[in-house]
């Protein structure tokens, strides 16, 4: 069987290179390691099954982010009637309070702010790229960034953001 290639990378290389990006999206979205692992796996299974073609690695990474977000949204929709994510404190991700790491504050934000801030600061995407990934207008992304920063500042407790 011939090896699958995605933007010049073999499947295992893609998983190795982008695993932190996808798991970061899933954990920030679901706030739960076990659920994030499921969506992480589903994202890479989707890549393997669908075998889409990509023009370059940036397109591949954007596709993985979009699929991960969709997987998380789908998971939340399917389980909304069974689980309340706010009531699951015993299985949620426990981010230590650390002034050098704002992950604990990011997970307290609404997903629309969390996604934009994560993509902007952690994944280093530009506003236009985030708009394309999330299917938003660039001005909407700017507004979400501004409002997200304000909310993050109130949670984080300072002007150092």
Summarize the structure.
This protein is mainly α and 161 residues long. The protein has 7 helices and 2 strands.
Shape: globular
Question: Can you give the mean pLDDT?
Answer: 84
The helix content is: 55-70%
Total strand segments: 2
Gyration radius, to the nearest Å?
16 Å
Assembly classification:
single chain
Along the chain, the helix and strand elements come as: EEHHHHHHH
The CATH topology label of the largest domain is Rna Polymerase Sigma Factor, Chain: A
Number of domains: 2
Query: What is the CATH level 1 assignment of the largest domain?
Result: Mainly Alpha
Give a short account of the largest sheet: 2 strands, antiparallel
Secondary-structure-based class equals mainly alpha
Distance between the termini: 51 Å
> How big a fraction of the residues is strand?
under 5%
Q: Strands of the largest sheet, in order across it?
A: 1-2
Which labels suit this protein?
Arc Repressor Mutant, subunit A; mainly alpha; 7 helices; two-stranded antiparallel sheet
Descriptive account of the structure:
- This protein is an all-alpha fold.
- It folds into two domains: 1-86, RNA polymerase sigma factor, region 2, helix turn helix motif (Rna Polymerase Sigma Factor, Chain: A, Orthogonal Bundle), CATH 1.10.1740.10; 95-161, Orthogonal Bundle (Arc Repressor Mutant, subunit A), CATH 1.10.10.
- The protein has seven helices and two strands; from the N terminus they run ββααααααα.
- The chain has helices spanning 11-30, 33-50, 57-79, 103-106, 111-122, 127-134, 138-156, and strands spanning 5-6, 9-10.
- A hairpin with a 2-residue loop joins β1 (5-6) and β2 (9-10).
- The longest helix has 23 residues, at 57-79.
- Residues 85-92 and 94-100 have low confidence and may be disordered.
């Amino acid at each position: 069987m011939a090896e699958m290639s995605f933007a010049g990378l073999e499947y295992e290389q893609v998983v190795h290179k982008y695993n932190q990006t996808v798991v970061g999206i899933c954990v920030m979205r679901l706030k739960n390691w076990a659920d994030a692992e499921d969506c992480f796996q589903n994202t890479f299974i989707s890549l393997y099954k669908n075998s889409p073609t990509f023009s370059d690695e940036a397109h591949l990474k954007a596709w993985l982010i979009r699929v991960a977000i969709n997987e998380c949204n789908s998971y939340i929709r399917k389980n909304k009637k069974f689980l309340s994510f706010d009531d699951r404190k015993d299985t949620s991700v426990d981010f230590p309070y650390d002034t050098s790491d704002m992950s604990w504050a990011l997970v307290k934000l609404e997903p629309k702010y969390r996604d934009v801030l994560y993509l902007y600061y952690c994944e280093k995407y530009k506003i236009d790229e985030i708009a394309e990934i999330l299917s938003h207008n660039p001005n909407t992304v700017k507004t979400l960034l501004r409002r997200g920063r304000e909310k993050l500042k109130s949670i984080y407790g300072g002007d150092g953001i």
